[in-house]
Amino acid sequence: MISVALIEDLKDIRDPLFEFLSFQPEFLCEIKAESVEDFLEKAKGFLPPDVILLDIGLPGISGLGAIQLLKDRWAEVNIIMLTVFDDTEKIFQALRSGAVGYLVKNTPLIKIRDAVIDSYGGGAPLSPEIARKVVRFFESPQNKIDSPLTEKEKQIVAGMVDGQSFKMIAANLGNTIETIKSHTKNIYRKLYVNSKAEVITKSLRGEI
Amino acid sequence: MISVALIEDLKDIRDPLFEFLSFQPEFLCEIKAESVEDFLEKAKGFLPPDVILLDIGLPGISGLGAIQLLKDRWAEVNIIMLTVFDDTEKIFQALRSGAVGYLVKNTPLIKIRDAVIDSYGGGAPLSPEIARKVVRFFESPQNKIDSPLTEKEKQIVAGMVDGQSFKMIAANLGNTIETIKSHTKNIYRKLYVNSKAEVITKSLRGEI
DNA sequence: TATTATACCCCCCGAATGTGGGATTGTGAA
DNA sequence: TTCACAATCCCACATTCGGGGGGTATAATA
Fold this sequence. Notes:
CATH architecture of the largest domain in chain A: 3-Layer(aba) Sandwich
Radius of gyration of chain A: 22 Å
Largest sheet of chain A: 5 strands, parallel
Shape of chain A: elongated
Oligomer: homodimer
Number of strands of chain A: 5
Order of helices and strands of chain A: EHEHEHEHEHHHHHH
Strand content of chain A: 5-15%
Number of helices of chain A: 10
């Protein structure tokens, strides 16, 4: 029997999911909580759970913050994030903190069941799009030998990463601000982005 | 129809697996090769395959070396490694080179079929023990340094790094844009910066 | 030679961001 | 009980950014 706990604030998700999990013959579902605080309270007197399904967008202590907390308490527990967020930062923060799984919230119930079993068996259940992001992380930037950017464009990117405004970049490179903005448009087109923020992120992740 | 190719030197594995895959109604299996060289020869005249199942222990060009080669030729191809090796080095080398999946060789046929579909759909099929190793890679050895930012502020920073506008961050976190702007002012004050760009740079350099 | 591609330069406008004020609520520490 | 401070919202205003144009010059290529 796999002992499973669920922490999820939305009643409409929590209750049906918990009921479904309770129905599984291989699961022992003892704890259902609407927040981390609630969970820690209810967990008193129970044996450590094998698997915890944990929402990220919780009131009070967030799911991401809770990972560390829960791992400190039970080092062996398998934490699976269950969330609507699919942005890279949250995924990596969760994994860094010690989560072993990451499921997006539209995951069918049966897949959630499989994920619990998978994690208990030493796997790492990730939703397909999440898995792809994780795997992409390893892809060596060196593979993309030739940056599509020209020298000028690279200088501008460097300025952006440095936190400079277009005006400052223009001053440094001896151009008008309009010229810099024009180059920026070309940069955005080449990198398939449409904001300074994305250029900086791509650049610092070695994707240029 | 997903066009699938198989490169595997052992006849005893290659032939039954190819037959199985050919039998799947959603697959179009045109190329079966016993080496990378053999594959490149046979691939002439065919459209680029969607998914390539690739052994690592091949005679001649190794599977690991072939990844780069194949990705250079068809940037969009999904390469799934199929191998007896489960050592960390080979896994990461494969992912670095651009493979999207990694299956150990005792994987049941039906799971291989699922993996092909998964990869074609934008996923990253990994055998459970492989997935766990990949996820473990992220686990930070040291406990997080204390950031001056609150949980909420960190969420906003995460949004910024993801390239979101204040409006989008507000929508994701369920706030008004004014709230986000207010928090942003506090973030800037705490980090001694005065632009989104600088926050992203600091964050990605691990200075938060 | 005409065409194409590319790097580089500039202007305008609406949207987003940055900055200066506010305000209220709740929580937790002094 | 103050006090600080996180979190939520609001307004006003100046600046910056993103996307739409328009150009020139040069090199390669058809």
